[in-house]
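Researcher: Sequence recovery benchmark, item below. Answer with residues only.
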């Protein structure tokens, strides 16, 4: 399985917002308390595009993810797969693709991703890829969502 990928630009903005909104509907429908009407917001999406951190996967905006690097950590955020492509393996492909990319960077010591306690499909996927849960925490201003779980993939 292979999906095209590229960094998003401002011409992709409306399609990315649509993809994020589809993800919010999926979460609401399945009882995942991770995203709401305020997060992720349009300002955050624009910021990800401006900083060239937002990656698009697939020819038809099948999925997107934000990848940031801070010191020795690669941080995966806001991974979403369009509802028409759920259970297709694209999230597995994206995470594997990121891990392979980051392995080539000697300064990156670990890859991190956080997900909500209610996002069982993501937790299962992360565990299958050998990510290790490292801590539970609350996010300031988002306490109503309950605990988030940080997963770490050690690179060395």
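Model:
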């Amino acid at each position: 399985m292979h999906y095209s990928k590229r960094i998003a630009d401002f011409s992709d903005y409306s399609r990315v917002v649509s993809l994020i909104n589809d993800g919010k509907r999926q979460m609401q429908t399945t009882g995942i308390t991770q995203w709401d009407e305020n997060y992720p917001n349009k300002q955050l999406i624009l910021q990800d595009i401006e900083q060239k951190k937002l990656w698009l996967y697939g020819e038809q905006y099948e999925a997107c993810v934000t990848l940031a690097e801070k010191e020795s950590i690669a941080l995966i955020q806001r991974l979403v797969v369009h509802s028409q492509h759920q259970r297709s393996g694209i999230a597995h492909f994206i995470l594997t693709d990121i891990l392979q990319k980051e392995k080539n960077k000697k300064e990156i010591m670990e890859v991190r991703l956080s997900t909500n306690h209610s996002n069982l499909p993501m937790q299962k996927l992360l565990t299958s890829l050998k990510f290790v849960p490292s801590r539970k925490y609350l996010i300031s201003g988002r306490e109503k969502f309950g605990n988030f779980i940080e997963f770490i993939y050690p690179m060395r």
